[in-house]
Structure formats: C-alpha cells, structure tokens
Amino acid sequence: MEKFTSESFWIAGVKNIPAFVFDRSSTPAGALLSKVKISVFTFLRNGAKLGYPFIESIKSALPLADEYVIALGPSDSDENGETRRLLLGLNEPKLRIVDSAWNEGMRVAGFVYGQQKMLAQSQCNGDWAFYLEADEVLHENDLEKIHTSMQRHLGNAAVEALVFDYVHFFGSPRWRAISPGWYRRAPRIIRNTIRTVACDGLFWNVIVNNQKMRWPNAAHSGATIYHYGHVRSISAMNAKQHSVERYWNKSPQDFKRYAIDPMAVQPYAGAHPAVMDCWLRERADKHWQPNADHQLTSRERRHRLAMRLESAFGLDLSRKHFKMVVNA
After folding, report:
1. Residue 139 falls within a domain, yes or no?
2. What angle is formed at CA 268 by the lines to CA 266 and CA 273, rounded to 5 degrees?
3. CATH no. for residue 247?
4. How would DSSP label each residue in 259-312?
5. Residue 146: Cβ within 10 Å count
C-alpha cells in the first residue's frame, strides 16, 4: 500500500510541509475500488532561458504522479541544453522525457503548442492525464483533494475532465488578475480514454463522431492552480517575446514592463505553494505596482464594462472551456 508523507515532499524538494498522510489506495464511499493511475504531463522548450518555474511546477505535482511525461523540444544555442540538465538533475524515476521536434513552419494561433501538448499526452498511460504548464504550480494542501477527486470520479464516465480554480499572478506575486479576460476556471485533468484534441495547447476539445467537437463535461477538482507566468523577470519576458511570438505569426516586440488596467488586478494576501519560496525570493519582481495612468486598450475597455456587469448582476463573464456535470 503506497502512502505519501511529509517526507515524500521533502524528497521532491519541498520543505516545511504540514505532516499529513494520504493513502492512494483508499476510496470514499461509493467510489471505484481499483487504484487510480495518474499521468502528469507537459511540454517544454528553453524553460531555463525563458525563466519558467518548471522545476517547482514538476515538484509540486510529483506526489500525485505515477509517471510524469515531458515532451522536450530542442534547446536554442544560447540555452545550451540547460533545461535538460535541470530535469535530469532531479534524478526522478517517475520522469520520462520524450524528445520532440517543433514545426517551425506552423505560425497559426499557437497551434504548435497544441501539437506539443498532444504529443506529450499521447505518451501517457494513466486513467487520468493531468496537464500542468511550466508556470503552473499546485499547493501542497490541495494534493489530497485532487487525488480524491480523481478516484471518486474514475467510475463515472459522465465526468470527462476535472476543473481547477485559478490564481493568475500579474506583475508581482502580491497582485492577481481578476478581470473576465483571464479564465477563472479551467480543465487540467482529462479522462485518458476519450478522444480529444488541444488545438491551442491550453484547452481540450472532445471529438464527436469525427464530425464536430465540444468542450469536455467536467466536475470540480476542489483545488486551485497558481499561475506565475506573468511575474517573471523583465529579461525573461523579453526572451519569451523574441522566442515564441512567431508561432502566432507576430513580429516580436521588446518587453519593457508589465502593463494592465489597474482595475483588472487586486492585491493578493493568500499563501503561495511552499515549493515556490526560493523562486519567489530570487526570481520574481516584488515591487511592481499598477499604474493609475495606464492607457486602456479597447480590449481592456470591454473587460472593464464586463466587470461592471458582473458586479451589478452577480455574473461570471469569463470564458469557460468546459461544461459542468450536474450533481457530479
């Protein structure tokens, strides 16, 4: 009988974790009695050069994983294989690196990201496939909730995906984005026995009769994903702009500062995952503040109007790439 303890998290590189134990073979009443098998997966290219907290992301999910699949793209000459060295330095037997080529001719809507996501998912052998991006991190206090949710819904074919709440940090780990322009919930776990595609990398479409696609039917995982992609250093964000904008058929522009509608962010006073402590101290900008004189874009004006409607009528106008299953 396999158990995870606080010592398991220390091995994964996380310290000062509350000492809890959960049994991966236990099930709540009415759940399927077989042990759930979990594949965590992602894709990476130049993760070190672009400043992603990918090692922290991996460590945060390792206690859940039976296997952790990474589609690893070619390293740029100025990165010199550093991402691979950091991955191998984990010395983690669950980790499986799948070397991948990137279609440099694919310049439409970031579809190359979808190709890499699907490639990594195709190598997963679990009952559930858990997609965690290189700047997304789990909180240690949520791991038992996530595992319990996967176990509980394993026998219910009506539930095709599990949805997470999101905290999108922006500019600084002390600020979070709140406008409906940022998805507030998203599916990150998919049943690994249904036909899906991920056209833009972020979200899944379920294929129906080879003729149409729909969003997956989902239940809530009970957990949150913490998104740190927009608190990286200016130099890392500039490197990202010049590395990936071409996949959206855009000409790269220098990244000089984080800019956003000041009404679209609010202070964050909650806890961060413990695995992020060092990265936040050494890599994140802790002094950013929203600019009251920020000039709104047309998109930000639309989002500001949407926030007024949300406040007046109790709505959630953020995009939802799933359909919740009633009474799941």
Report:
1. yes
2. 145
3. 3.90.550
4. ---GGGEEE--SPPPGGGHHHHHHHS-S-----TTPPPPHHHHHHHHHHHHHHH
5. 24
SS3 percent helix, strand, coil of the chain, rounded to 5, is 30, 25, 45
Q: Identify the H or E element spanning 237.
A: helix 234-244
Percent of the chain with pLDDT over 70: 90
Per-residue model confidence (pLDDT) at position 19: 36
Q: Looking at the predicted structure, is the pLDDT value of residue 189 above 70? A: yes
> What local confidence, expressed as pLDDT, does residue 27 receive?
37
Task: Look up residue 72 and give its DSSP letter.
Answer: E
Q: What's the rounded mean pLDDT across residues 147-155? A: 96
Give residue 260's domain range: 36-328
Would you call 97 helix, strand, or coil by DSSP? strand
Q: Which two tokens stand for residue 314?
A: 């109790």
3-state secondary structure 119-169: HHHHCCCCCEEEECCCCEEECHHHHHHHHHHHHHHCCCCCCCEEEEEEEEE
- 13 within some domain: no
The Cα angle at residue 188 between residues 302 and 214, in degrees rounded to 5:
70
Tally the domains of the chain.
1
